[in-house]
Design brief:
Blueprint: E1 2-7, H1 10-21, E2 30-35, H2 38-41, E3 45-46, H3 54-64, E4 68-71, H4 74-78, H5 81-87, E5 92-93, H6 97-104, H7 106-115, E6 123-126, H8 129-138, E7 144-148, E8 157-160, H9 163-174, E9 179-183, E10 188-197, E11 201-203, E12 208-209, E13 212-214, E14 218-221, E15 226-229, H10 236-256, E16 262-272, E17 275-282, H11 289-293, H12 301-310, E18 324-331, E19 344-345, E20 356-358, E21 362-363, E22 369-370, E23 375-383, H13 386-397, H14 413-416
Parallel strand pairs: 1-2, 1-4, 2-3, 4-5
Antiparallel strand pairs: 6-9, 7-8, 7-9, 10-11, 10-16, 12-15, 13-14, 15-18, 16-17, 18-23, 19-22, 20-23, 21-22
Helix pairs in contact: 3-5, 6-7, 8-9
Bound molecules: adenosine monophosphate (AMP) and glycine.
Glycine is lined by residues 154, 209, 223-224, 282, 286-287, 289.
């Protein structure tokens, strides 16, 4: 199979690694990444193509005789890459632009989930500062969550009980976008992925991300600082409730509204005292969740994702290992605020570590490695149990050396203890 993976993050490196190590069907894959990173360059062929430029991608697909395109990040989905590929008859994994609105517009997503009876936080919408000011005055001191409606790379959310902080965040959002204010939900979070091929869906093992920047779940929101899989509190009864109360009504609603969905839908779920509630939809695999999930997949990934693209999901029964996975994100200094790029990285001693996934790294003309993003690597550990997985992950997380590198040292601690 000749596969093209669109994107340049650690999630795309994990996807490329999964194709390179077990594509399925006994066949090997030729893997191309657009544009990929220095990590994918070692296991696949990077091509200098902008995944948000559908024409460039189509040209590469024809030249390289690609049989399946997997879209990692939301940007190309919002830009209509899947629509262009489908129009050209190219098998692709990802939803069309219309369905990508479930992630690209939190306002649309909230109205959609309210229409279909999906439990979520009580939400108010604002387009004017005056209305927001009045709302904050009336609820003074109450903890609320403000959200920018459009895409914000995990940084468009503020939880606070400080009216001044909320107002200044809200005013900044309202300059260019719609604002949502949600009731603050208390509980434990899960990232749940469901593959969907338009007719059927299939729920994958749940992961738990760590969204806050600092230990103890403190500090600002990030794209995610580490993820574990499996998650003990995602037991059968909990997953059955999530499926019947959140996932099934969502897919029913999408079918009824003509949101043809092929790819993976990510449900951010809060397990509250009143039951599971939807925090958000994402129209792609999570990052860093994917880096912990895919090393546990025993079924060939080409069979699974190719099956989605072909509309053959109902015949698939993916197998996952009974091991535990822990992923730790290694970030640049300053992240999730402003951070420098192009920091030289020393990866000595990682030659045998296949689960060190790069994000936006590149090589200079002299071959030296440099960072390119805020989240620079995900170090994944696998083990027979959680303790072994964590030990492996943290041993690996120490290895990439660069100025100002940092990571949370408590990934999984609130879930497994210690
Ligand atoms: P979102 O982009 O909507 O998933 O929000 C990012 C993160 O903010 C989530 O993963 C949660 O940790 C937190 N969050 C979002 N909405 C709420 C809410 N209504 N109550 C509590 N925490 C929330
Ligand atoms: N880790 C959360 C996300 O991918 O949005």
């Amino acid at each position: 199979m000749r596969v093209l993976i669109a994107g340049s993050g650690a999630r795309e490196h994990a996807l490329a690694w999964a194709f390179a190590s077990n594509s399925g069907d006994g066949a090997s894959s030729a893997v191309f990444c657009a544009p990929g990173n220095a990590g994918t360059a070692a296991i696949a062929v990077n091509i200098p193509v902008d995944p948000e430029n559908s024409q460039e991608v189509l040209r590469a697909v024809r030249e390289l005789r690609i049989g399946l395109v997997i879209v990692g990040p939301e940007g190309p989905l919002a830009a209509g890459l899947i629509d262009a590929l489908e129009a050209a008859g190219v098998p692709a994994f990802g939803p069309p632009r219309k369905a990508a609105a479930l992630e690209c517009s939190k306002s649309f997503a909230r109205s959609f989930s309210e229409r279909w009876g999906v439990p979520c936080a009580c939400t108010e919408r604002f387009s004017r500062t005056d209305d927001l000011r009045r709302f904050l005055d009336e609820g003074r001191g109450k903890r609320v969550v403000l959200k920018k409606s459009g895409l914000a790379a995990g940084k468009g959310v503020l939880e606070s009980d400080d009216p001044a902080e909320l107002l200044s965040f809200g005013e900044a959002v309202l300059e260019s976008d719609e604002l949502l204010a949600e009731e603050f939900l208390v509980g434990r979070e899960l990232s749940v992925f469901a593959l969907c091929d338009r007719s059927d869906y299939l729920v994958l093992p749940a992961c738990a991300d760590h969204k806050k920047a600092y230990p103890g779940d403190l500090g600002p929101n990030t794209g995610g600082m580490g993820a574990v899989c499996p998650v003990p509190y995602a037991d059968d009864a909990t997953m059955a409730r999530i499926e019947s109360e959140i996932i099934a009504p969502t897919f029913r609603g999408m079918e009824a509204e003509g949101l043809g969905y092929r790819g993976v839908l990510f449900f951010g779920v809060m397990l509250t005292g009143e039951g599971p509630k939807l925090l958000e939809y994402n129209v792609r695999f999570g990052d860093p969740e994917t880096q912990s999930l895919l090393p546990l997949l025993e079924t060939g990934i080409g069979d699974l994702l190719g099956g989605v693209a072909r509309g053959a999901l109902c015949s698939l029964r993916p197998r996952f290992s009974a091991k535990a996975a822990c992923g730790v994100v290694i970030a640049a200094p300053g992240y999730p605020g402003a951070y420098p790029k192009g920091i030289p990285v020393d990866l000595a001693g990682t030659e045998d570590d296949s689960l060190l996934f790069h994000a936006s790294t590149s090589r200079r003309g002299d071959g030296s490695l440099v960072t390119g993003g805020g989240r620079c690597f995900t170090a994944v550990g696998l083990g027979g149990d959680w303790t072994a997985a964590r030990r492996e992950a943290y041993a690996l997380a120490e290895k990439p050396r660069f100025e100002g590198a940092w990571f949370r040292r408590d990934i999984g601690a609130s879930i497994f203890g210690g």
